[in-house]
Specification:
about 900 residues, alpha+beta, Immunoglobulin-like, 5 domains, 18-stranded antiparallel β-sheet, eleven-stranded mixed β-sheet, 12 helices, about 45% strand
């Protein structure tokens, strides 16, 4: 019986297969030349495809009547009604060049190109167009091929290198994939890889399938390159209205986009924008850097009324740098299966009907009123365009429910996902023949035919591919950096063990080499609550003593970030409390570079217990209270070598102290207005704010029965902010002022310290600390005013030179200021170059109350443990 139903099923499948027809065709111009990248869009199936370099395409369709839109940038769109009846139908289309009508375009009387009027409106409405589509479900077929014509000499060196080059030279290597994409506004993409095929003889898995369709022209950047529709685009791009033409009832503006500087993060080319609607209907972008060029053509079609979405992608890449020569081509065709329009967002300036059903805050009313006011303006300025875009973005992020904070960012806006079908690499040739929207080229067919022999050759030379990609890297990462191991099946209890990196965390001439480890036990409870505790246990080889600390943390209110922290132990401590980065720097300089920097940190022994509680009493407003008891004993060097100085802070600009005790209590309020946050695993995590962070703190030293005990009061206030100024620039500042209200008895660890950095091994410290002076030179027990500013730009001084504009480093200028009654006015200024946040190199000049003080070079490297972990984990993903 089972075989009977199986036979019936196969028979029905064959009948259905027979009903699937194939439409093949070619797109040419009036002179018969193929139009590569032309878009063929079928209205009934919301399916697009792209013509190859020969103008050819193919689509599988069921029998029936169809409306085909044939278009290409620079050509008139054709609408063809076509009936598919035969098993294979053929279609040949010749497109006419567009008849432009620039003379009919309205010119604004400002003496500026009309393109700026159009672009201001397009930029202002980019957030609106980005959210017009609430959801869609699409199927994407992608194919890419590349050819290597030459390799660097070093890779061709030796017999093996020559054999590999001779084998792959001039051959086309191919990769193609089919995936389903589920999009949710504003920028979440779920990819499900259905099929994957490649002739590349490497361990490239389906999850690395070609993908450019998960980006939008309305986003601030496209594939990491600044979009001409991003806020701030006018500072990076020039625009020129090249032509205008009619397409049905619409006027389409062809605008030339020119980068103001030669950089690989800026586009050049053309963007096509519909008049009045200010939406993109196509673009043709390219960029050229030394030895590398790329061109991206994207065709849009009207999927629904006034809803234009990409239906085809055509990308060409050329390489000729450092001996590597070759070219690559890539294209994708998109078929939309489901489409959901966000009708609420279709009213940009008018009141949404949905808001009548709920109470509207005064702030929301104010934003809506300002949007309406700006939308009614006949001609926007650049600033007004940016403001309208920002307000539209803000309004569209406004929660629809009163129970949700207006500052909560739904997690779906931040998270993409990729899944792989179990049949992904098992699809047969019949499947691929049916799914392909462009026929294989002759060289691509040869690539598939020679795939097995090429792979066998590569395995013979390099060995079989690793069946578990990056397995060795993952193991090495866990050994070096540590990991958390689940102790139960539900992963509610985890043991975190530091790696080899933390077995030897520091070296100094007081303790010698620290040898030990830290371990943490994590207990995960319901609704994001968590308890962590564990020891850090080390042995100082020179002092021959045990250095230990126990710590515990209880996160009891995850949505308010409420937690208790408890620490106690016996450790050696820096008088200036500079932290992990300074300790690592001291380890390097003490062990390897004694003549250069020597042992600049001075240590005392502390036996302590510390308790702290912190909680958000409102969004962005954190209240913290803490207390600490500490017994401080003097220490001496236990390693004696040439150039090693005694363990006295006065030799580095500090103040000596007797053995003493301290009982200190403090409170602090920190407030960041309009602080946006996400909620992950029931835990609140702050993300961003356009406002600065304000703080005020009070610390008091309470008397004890000891002979020497700290007794003082200190008050300080501060403000700091990091501001992103577009894709290339950022600005940060911080100001802190305070005073010791009383100081009946005070010791050097209780002073207000302003850290000086040397050869820096933490890029975090590059933004606020001082660059010059002895390590303990900047301190006070009176009053102070401290400030820091940093401006970083991809194009500041050296990068303005044409031959340097494509280099990857950025530049920064830095300023520091300090005033205390003892020091007077002290200032530093400097210039640095860097590689993003990973490293910096700069020169800095200091000026004291008498004038010029000194000039030095400083360098920052990301060798602090947390920074190294971040970089290494990115590498081993």
């Amino acid at each position: 019986m089972k075989s009977f139903w199986l036979s019936i099923g196969l028979f029905i499948a064959l009948i259905m297969q027979g009903k699937a027809q194939v439409l093949i065709g070619q797109i040419t111009d009036e002179e018969g030349r193929a139009i590569e990248g032309a878009t063929i869009y079928i209205r009934e199936t919301m399916q697009g495809t792209v013509a190859d370099e020969n103008g050819n395409f193919r689509i599988h369709l069921a029998a029936g009547d169809y409306s085909l839109e044939i278009s290409a940038l620079g050509y008139e769109k054709q609408l063809i009604e076509w009936e598919i009846t035969e098993k294979e139908a053929s279609l040949s289309v010749r497109l006419k060049p567009i008849r432009y009508m620039l003379k009919e375009v309205r010119v604004i009387g400002k003496g500026e190109d009309p393109a700026y009027y159009i672009m201001r409106n397009a930029i202002a409405r980019a957030p609106y167009h980005r959210r017009k589509v609430k959801e869609y479900f699409s199927e994407v077929y992608s194919r890419g091929n590349f050819r290597i014509d030459n390799l660097p000499r070093i890779l061709k060196w030796g017999k093996t290198g020559r054999e590999v080059f001779d084998t792959i030279k001039g051959k086309t290597l191919l990769m193609e994939s089919v995936m389903d994409i589920k999009f949710q506004s504003p920028n979440r993409y779920k990819r499900n890889i259905l099929a994957f095929n490649t002739t590349i003889p490497e361990e490239i898995g389906p999850e690395k399938a070609l993908n450019v369709v998960t980006s939008s022209i309305y986003d601030p950047d496209i594939l990491g390159i600044l979009s001409p529709l991003s806020p701030g685009a006018f500072s990076s791009y020039k625009f020129r209205l090249e032509d205008s033409y009619r397409e049905g009832e619409r006027m389409i503006n062809k605008i030339e986009v020119q980068s103001k500087i030669n950089n690989n993060r800026l586009w050049n080319g053309w963007i096509y924008i519909a008049d009045e609607e200010w939406c993109v209907v196509g673009f043709d972008f390219s960029y050229n850097v030394k030895g590398f060029s790329a061109q991206m053509q994207v065709g849009f079609n009207e999927i629904a009324a006034a809803i234009f979405l990409p239906t085809s992608y055509n990308i060409a890449i050329g390489m000729d740098m450092m001996g590597l020569e070759g070219e690559a081509k890539y294209f994708s065709s998109v078929k939309y299966k489901e489409l959901q329009i966000d009708t609420i967002q279709l009213t940009l300036a008018t009141e949404d009907t949905s808001i009548r059903k709920r109470a509207v805050s005064k702030k929301e009313q104010k934003i809506r009123h300002k949007i309406q006011e700006l939308s009614e303006k006949e001609d926007l300025t650049n600033r007004q365009a940016y403001e309208l875009a920002r307000l539209s973005q803000r309004l569209q992020e406004w929660p629809s429910s009163d129970s949700v904070s207006p500052y909560q960012i739904p997690l779906r806006r931040l998270k993409d996902s990729v899944t792989v079908d179990t049949m992904v690499t098992k699809r047969d040739s019949l499947y691929w023949q049916k799914i392909r929207t462009v026929p294989l080229l002759e060289e691509e067919i040869k690539s598939y035919e020679g795939r097995d022999s090429l792979r066998k050759f590569m395995e013979k030379v390099f060995g079989p591919p690793d069946t578990v990609p990056n397995k060795a890297d993952m193991i090495f990462s866990k050994i070096m950096l540590g990991d958390t191991f689940a102790l139960d099946n539900r992963k509610r209890v985890g043991l975190e063990v530091g790696g080899l990196w933390e077995i030897f965390p520091q070296y100094n001439v007081v303790d010698g080499l620290w040898i030990g480890q830290n371990v943490q036990l994590h207990i995960y409870m319901n609704k994001g609550k968590k308890i962590s505790f564990g020891p850090s246990l080390y042995y100082g080889t020179a002092r021959k003593t045990l250095l230990w600390k126990m710590n515990a943390n209880w996160l009891y209110a995850p949505m308010s970030r409420g937690q208790w922290e408890l620490d106690f132990g016996e450790m050696s401590e820096d008088y200036g409390h500079a932290g992990e980065g300074a300790l690592f720097e001291n380890s390097i300089s003490s062990f390897f570079f004694q003549k250069l920097r020597k042992n600049f940190i001075r240590f005392y022994e502390r036996r302590f217990i510390h308790l702290k509680h912190s909680i958000d009493i409102a969004n962005g407003l954190t209240f913290a209270v803490e207390g600490q008891y500490e017994r401080r004993d003097l220490l001496r060097n236990h390693i004696s070598r040439k150039n090693i100085e005694p363990n006295d802070p006065v030799l580095e600009g500090g103040v000596d102290m007797p053995e003493n005790t301290s009982l200190i209590a403090g409170i602090r309020l920190t407030y960041t207005p309009c602080y946006f946050f996400t909620v992950k695993n029931h835990q609140k995590q702050y993300e961003r704010s356009a406002w600065p962070t304000f703080s005020i703190g009070y610390v008091r030293g309470l008397p004890t029965d000891a002979t020497y005990t700290s007794r003082f009061e200190r008050l300080d206030i501060g403000i700091k902010q990091n501001i992103k100024l577009g894709l290339f620039d950022s600005f940060s500042y911080s100001v802190n002022a305070g005073q010791f209200l009383s100081r009946k008895e005070i010791y050097f660890p209780d002073y207000m310290h302003f850290t000086t950095i040397g050869w820096v091994y933490s890029t975090d410290r590059f933004s606020e600390d001082f660059f010059l002076g002895e390590y303990y030179a900047w301190h006070t027990k009176d009053k102070w005013l401290r400030g820091a500013i940093n401006y970083n730009s991809a194009f500041l001084l050296l990068k303005r030179l044409p031959f340097m504009q494509n280099m990857t480093f950025d530049e920064g200028i830095h300023g520091r200021y300090l005033w205390t009654p003892e020091i007077g006015n002290y200032m530093e200024c400097g210039y640095s170059i860097g590689l993003q946040e990973y490293s910096r190199l700069g020169v800095f000049v200091g000026f004291n109350r008498h004038g010029y003080q000194e000039i030095k070079v400083r360098m920052a490297l990301p060798l602090q443990v947390k920074e190294f972990k971040k970089i290494f984990q990115e590498y081993t993903k």
